[in-house]
Specification:
The protein is mainly α and about 130 residues long. Helix content is about 75%, strand content about 0%. Helix 3 (about 80-100) packs antiparallel against helix 4. The longest helix is centred in the middle third of the chain and has 25 residues, at about 45-70.
Length: about 130
């Protein structure tokens, strides 16, 4: 039950993060909320491309957690699924570390709480 709730939360959280990074990739003036802040709110092309790549990666993570919930057909066996779950814990750990040690105050306020919650939920799913 708790792992189902955690997987559902992770689907929502990674989908929201994917949409945020897709908006950045498409040119939304949200640079104040990400690393590499620019005073006019716009990011360089390389940072926008990174935002697009992150949105694709987050959509893939959403697909993994939807397979955990049984909405998609899993492509991994139980052992492979366990390995991927722990890799996702590692990714969530890096995200939480970056968000909570950011010098950018707006970035820290926006991402600190959600990334810690995502880390805890990823650990619950992996265990």
């Amino acid at each position: 039950m708790l792992d189902t709730f955690s997987s559902s939360f992770l689907v929502f959280a990674y989908l929201a993060a994917a949409l945020f990074h897709l908006a950045i990739a498409l040119g939304a003036p949200l640079a104040a909320y990400v690393h590499g802040e620019n005073p006019n709110g716009k990011l360089r092309f390389s940072r926008r491309a990174l935002g697009f790549g992150l949105s694709l990666a987050f959509i893939a993570i959403v697909g993994h957690y939807l397979a955990q919930l049984g909405l998609f057909t899993p492509i991994l066996d139980a052992a492979g699924n366990a390995v991927v779950n722990w890799v996702l814990v590692g990714i969530a750990t890096v995200q939480a570390f970056i968000a909570n040690t950011a010098k950018n105050l707006k970035q820290k306020k926006l991402w600190s709480g959600p990334t810690v919650a995502m880390l805890l939920a990823a650990i619950i799913v992996a265990v």
